[in-house]
Design brief:
transcription; mainly alpha; DNA-binding; 2 domains; developmental protein
Length: 367
DNA sequence: AAGGACCTCAACCGCACTCCT
DNA sequence: CAGGAGTGCGGTTGAGGTCCT
């Protein structure tokens, strides 16, 4: 099912766009919408292929694009999502409002990747390079397991997100449908609710033991995420990350109508999940080999927690930062990075995230 | 000041996927 | 089911800018 190159026609222009071309494209889309990209260039009077026009529009001309430097929170969101999703830039971009996948990809390749590498963290695995080496000559089996579990969880999260998006669509076309959807309300049957956001729920339990009154030894393959981060993922899985929501503080705004609450996942209980749900479905519990090692992943490293045992709770960073640092005014990012204070920089990021998550109410899903 | 090295990022390439006929 | 059209996506390229010697 091969496709012919879109620009093989002689006479089509390639390379950088001129302001005139931009203007033509903008004017046309403004007036008619883009419609069929293939037909657009001729209609708009452009000597470009449709693909080129689409790219120019989606990556540059679209009015809802935010350009310029990435904020700290955007940076850490990218890193966390990359740890979870890998090079799936479009998926990452959906969680960074107004940023394009191309921009995120470029930023990763030119900035974040190098920065992580500089810190001795493998940008691919998000683990300290020394860890990667030791696992290579040591427990290769467990590292393979971990990799598989991470892939499994990643795929699972993606499926969750898709489920919610589909439910969203159904709800729009048929509001009553949400009452019947597994992700919907307590009206859903327990069995239907089972395959919902259990992974994230498990993170919740793990990362906010005080609120949930329990503490599990369960360690997610991607347990580099803390509670605040898991809330971002929950929002992501719900297919909606509001503009004011970041990993540092996902809070429902007044303008949002709560429709799906996590505590309304009928039939789901933490015990159920941790115990494998009684139906043997707890693949990641069945292969717990090496779970703890994930704590030694990149977040632990970033937090200056080389032994992953900082304060006995390496994934939360609570109390791991010196007091004077906690009370400091926002630290100048460039100064920290350029001054070789990378750990402090990242500490600042994660500290701000975790502190903002401490006073939150139970997460709410929005449709 | 010159020029080579390095960096950044817009744009391109080509594969993969979905939809439609 | 096959195949074409349209589009999404991730990897790569290369022009232009900046830094370094």
């Amino acid at each position: 099912m091969g496709r012919s190159p879109c620009c093989e026609k002689v006479g089509l222009k390639k390379g950088p766009w001129t302001p005139e071309e931009d203007q033509k494209l903008l004017a046309y889309i403004d007036k008619h919408g883009h419609g069929s990209w293939r037909a657009l260039p001729a209609k708009a009077g452009l000597q470009r292929c449709g693909k080129s026009c689409r790219l120019r529009w989606t990556n540059y001309l679209r009015p809802d694009i935010k350009r310029g430097e990435f904020s700290m929170q955007e940076e850490q969101t990218i890193i966390q999502l990359h740890a979870l999703l890998g090079n799936r830039w479009s998926a990452i971009a959906t969680h960074l409002p107004k940023r394009t996948d191309n921009e995120i990809k470029n930023y990763w390749n030119t900035h974040l990747k190098k920065r992580l590498a500089k810190m001795g963290i493998d940008p691919c695995t998000h683990k300290a390079k020394s860890d990667a080496l030791s696992s290579a000559d040591g427990d290769s089996r467990s590292s393979t397991n971990l990799s598989h579990m991470a892939q499994w969880e990643s795929a699972r999260l993606e499926a969750e997100a898709r489920l919610v998006r589909e439910s969203k669509l159904r709800a729009v076309s048929n509001p009553a449908a949400i009452l019947q959807h597994p992700m919907g309300t307590a009206a859903a049957s327990p069995s239907a609710a089972k395959p919902s956001l259990d992974v994230i729920r498990a993170w919740l339990v793990k990362h906010q033991p005080a609120e949930h009154g329990e503490r599990s030894d369960l360690e997610s393959p991607t347990s580099t995420l803390n509670f605040a981060e898991s809330r971002l993922l929950m929002a992501a899985a719900a297919g909606r990350v509001p503009g004011n929501a970041t990993a540092g503080g996902y809070q429902g705004g007044e303008n949002m109508e709560p429709e799906i609450r996590i505590d309304s996942f009928a039939g789901f209980s933490t015990e159920h999940f941790l115990a494998g749900g009684g139906d043997g479905e707890a693949p990641w519990l069945a292969e717990t080999c090496g779970w703890g090692q994930f704590g030694a992943g990149f977040t632990g490293m970033l937090l200056g927690d080389k032994n992953s045992g900082c304060c006995g709770d390496s994934y939360t960073n609570n109390g791991c930062v010196p007091e004077e640092e906690e009370e400091e005014e926002p630290v100048d990012k460039e100064e920290l990075v350029e001054g070789g204070e990378n750990k402090s920089y990242w500490n600042t990021i994660f500290n701000s995230i975790n502190s903002s998550s401490s006073s939150t109410s139970p997460p709410v899903f929005y449709n």
